[in-house]
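Submission sheet (multi-component)
Chains listed below:
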Amino acid sequence: MDSPRRNPRKCSALPAVLLLCLAAVGCGSSARHFGRQAFRRHDYETAQMFFEKNKDKADRNFVLYNLEWASAAFEGGDYLTARRALETAAEVMRGYGGSTEGIISLIANESAKMFKGDPFERAMANFYDGLIYYRWGDYGNARAAFHQALMADASSAEDHREDFAVAQFMIGKCYQKLGEPDNARISFEKARKAYPDNPYFSGKALRDHNVLIILQLGKAPKKIAAGPAGSLDDRVRGNYRETRAKVYANRKLLGASSCAVDLLHQAKTSGRTAKDTIQAAKGVAKTGLFAAAAATQDDTSAGLLLAALLMPAQADLRQWDLLPGEIHVVSAKLPPGSYTFKVEFFADGKRMNDFRQVWHYVPVEEDRDTLLVFRSGRNKANGHMPPRQNPVFRAENDEDLASAPQN
Amino acid sequence: MSVKPKALIPVVIMAVAMVCGCVDYGRVAVDSEDPFHGSTLDSKDLLSTAEKMARGIVRIPQIATADKPPTVAFARVTNRSSQPLDTDLYLEEIRTRLIKHTGGKLIFLDRARSEEVLRERELKRTGEVTASSKKAVLGADYFLTGSIRSVDKGSGRVRSTATFCRFRLTDAETMQIMWEDSYQVKKIGKQGVWDR
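Outcome: structure written.
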């Protein structure tokens, strides 16, 4: 039987409408894509410009858009904007809204819910907030923000609820500034419990120090699908090699960095909850349908296969991937003045020359602590010619760049 | 089996609606409840605190029956709660209500502008700018200060936060506390299963 002749005019609107849909989806996605590209090449102003386009978009990724905007603003030194973005994100992360989307996510794909981040991501949002307050000398609000970071971590697995050591350490620093030595001592003790080998977690040593350096190493732990039919999420270490840093001030070694929190460890110890049980059940059901479709030899096989394909069980793989992999600290005492700070990063004990950073005219103030935050990255603040433009060196891929002879 | 183009129209409309999202904006009262509920202080708590403190200060006998309007300066409000707060906003909101409702029974000193005021006075006295009158800088009779603290507890998905906003008026000569009051609120929240 011949199919009825189609009226071309009735069909012509359809491609245009579909294109409009794609364009509407594409605009937000491309801004994030370009923003991340700019972030990775340390062009934080451009990254901020792209991420800002999405900051008011009231969809299930609202928190993620603001966290990305906050990351770019923070790394670029625009602390007012970073604070605003972090506060906007944190209000939703701390709140109890999004129930409609949440209920849908229990039945459909998990990513239907409003993104609020894993416990360590919530903790990091508050940690950055605290760093900004600390930098401004507002130790009361800084203490409150670091306390919020600890509270975010409190929903982790039972044995790992007070191990966000860098927040404990910063609370201790705040208490020192607020003139509460007993509370400071307790906080430093809690930090030492998680990282006993960190020499900077000894309160006594820090009392006279006026320079605090926070070093962000590597890349955020990568979220991957795991479990039956990819219904659960897991984390693996981000792709980076630096494991340590040394900081120099006016060519004198200030100190070697020591890990204050490993975000992969935090991610892995978030613990499983009832939500994961529901996800696993969805995954098992989906796997079962596939198996049943394979085993059935009759007409119902196609129906079972379709049901298996359509059944939503995918884990939510959204993440705040502009975070670092680890946070390290260095603490020291310096007379007030202007300094040249050099930061060297190391992988397996070897210096990574293309990761060296040099920052000139950094002031150390007289009447308050100087807080410096550095982030590792290739060819950031070192004036190196980009390898692919170097007339002497040619590399096939990043592995070669890392192992190339360095001067 | 062929699909008629007309049958696709509702699907396309749904797709467009989903892509555009459900946008919902509107102006609401400052003291309305936030839609995303949390266990921390919000604008409604700020206004309630300011209102309660202002009513309490107006009734102090030393202020209600003073021959001359007493002068009040702000001192720092300490934030000892678990929530970063703009503590100056609380003092400013209390001041706004007091100025509005006391009709001049209290004089507030703008110590935040001290530097600009002293500079302007210097310029007037050296004749660099005109001066319609010369007055003495007022000293404070009282300091308005306070503290915000909280007690936080959490277990699994449930979290409770009890916040205490305490304000006091201190005599700037004798250090005597003339008045003190507090606004207390406790909020309990339970995260959804989907929220970890």
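Remark: The longest helix of chain A spans residues 8-40.
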